[in-house]
Amino acid sequence: MSAAPTTSHLASRLGGIALGILPIALLAAGWELVASSGLVTPFMLPKLSAVLQRIYDDALTGELFINLGLTLYRALVGFAISVVGGVLLGAAMARSVPVRWFFDPIISVGFPMPKIAFLPIMVLWLGFFDVSKIAMIVLDAIFPVVTATVAGLNSVERELIWSARNMGASERELLWQVMLPAALPQILTGLQVSLPLCLIVAVVAEMAMGGYGLGGAMNTASRFADSRGVFAGIVEIAAVGYCLIKLMSLLRRRLLLWHQEALEPTTA
Amino acid sequence: MKAALIRFLPLLLIALLWEIAPRVGLVSSLALPPLSAVLSAWFELLRDGDLITNGASSLYRAGVGLALAIVVGGALGLFMAWWRPVNAFLSPLVELFYPMPKSALIPVTVLWLGFGDGSKILLIFLGCMLPVTIGAFNGARGSERVLIWSARSMGASRLRVLWDVVLPSAMPELLNGIRTAIALAFILLVSSELIVARQGFGYLIGFLGANGSYEGMFAVVLTVALIGFAADRLYQVLMQRVLQWRE
């Protein structure tokens, strides 16, 4: 008797997944059809199967993993620096008046600027290799983390702070055990804004400077009018972006198990 | 006045340091030209007309791409919220493409439309559409059922309800989505112009840098950064204006 509801639940879940995959399958089939119908030249739109074949070949020669690894390395090192630096700076700004006085105008003027324009200056200062790319990523990705940390720490409930102080918590304990956990949901939202920025900037920096990496490989492919290579790059970068963002939202759910928002039904 | 001065003093200090550090030889003036040299290079570029012609073509690309993204993306989001089958079909696709780093599209748009305006407009349109769509969708979905029911019972047609009830209540989130789109538009514009272009701010930055006239390069970089900042601030003022009826 008890098996019946479970199976129907499972069936409805499978149905939901099928319904979600259907449009994607249709899109893939449409791509393949349009590309092989002769409406467009293979140069404008190579067949999906040819693009997948190309990715498979690159995986066999190992080129795919070199490029993928380098792009991920740059993006994730940049992200890690932005997270640590951003949270530290944000915490300092929330707690110290002089620090806030100094950095507040810089952050509020710098956040809306298109910092990617500084790319040639980074190259001038730091050269063509990893350091300039990672510096560029940090310059772009640190702002959302700082603002989210400041906003999160400033909105911690007074009662929490008062009770912790009342029970004899030191300033350090107050920060690590009360304020930062209470601000965590907002900080994580900042990280969720910052992570895609890391990938966007990593790809742009690689495209502009050339060399290895997913963006560099796409740039080379486009210079040689190798459209299969260009489309392979799009598929690879889209897959990487999708996986990273899914991982980030899993991490958020894991870290915030104790928080009310974990009880709400999620669509993700 | 005094409060503003104290608030923006750090920026003045940085500007001062920028002027002094290369002058006293703390950093090479090749790596960091003094601020005054950058400013005079800026006036030079303005007088030559380089800044105006390149700036005009950049702003034209960003404007057209953004306008298309707002109209198409907003309509798409509203229809997704309004009509179930559209949502069932499009939401997996939106979820698939939203996390994609949009800069990956730069080489494809060049492949399709060449080096000119078309490829940049297409890139900005594609890159900025989804944040607007998601804003419109979330906003429209959050519109209160009771308002829709009352409008319907008072005899409003479905389209009338969409226009008079759903769109206004979707406005705050839609406008926030557009704000994200504006920031993205500048990023995509400058990066695509840095990588492949024959005109525009990004091209001018690359051109001046390659010729070693770093004062000019810094001047154009600052111009772009300030335009991006000003666009965001102006948009915020506009947003508050539009949303005034919400108290």
List its salient traits:
heterodimer; A: 268 residues; mainly alpha; MetI-like fold; 10 helices; flat; B: 247 residues
At CATH level 2, the architecture of chain B is: Orthogonal Bundle
How many strands, what sense, and barrel or not for the largest sheet of chain B? none
Which quaternary structure do these chains form?
A: heterodimer
CATH fold descriptor of chain B: MetI-like fold
H/E element sequence of chain A:
HHHHHHHHHH
CA radius of gyration of chain B is 22 Å
Q: Helical stretch count of chain A?
A: 10
Beta-strand percentage of chain A?
Answer: under 5%
Distance between the termini of chain A: 31 Å
Provide a brief overview of the structure.
The complex is a heterodimer of chains A (268) and B (247). Chain A is mostly helical.
Task: Characterise this structure.
The complex is a heterodimer of chains A (about 270) and B (about 250). Chain A has one domain (about 45-255): Orthogonal Bundle (MetI-like fold), CATH 1.10.3720. Chain A has helices spanning about 5-35, 50-60, 65-95, 95-110, 120-125, 130-155, 160-165, 170-210, 215-225, 225-255. The two termini of chain A are about 30 Å apart. The mean pLDDT of chain A is about 85. Chain A has ten helices and no strands. Chain A has about 270 residues and is mostly helical. Chain B is mostly helical. Chain B has one domain (about 35-245): MetI-like fold (Orthogonal Bundle). Chain B has helices spanning about 1-25, 35-50, 50-80, 85-95, 105-115, 115-140, 145-155, 160-195, 200-210, 215-240. In chain B, helix 8 (about 160-195) packs antiparallel against helix 10 (about 215-240). The two termini of chain B are about 30 Å apart. The mean pLDDT of chain B is about 85. Chains A and B meet through helix 1, helix 4, helix 5, helix 8 and helix 9 of A and helix 1, helix 4, helix 5, helix 8 and helix 9 of B.
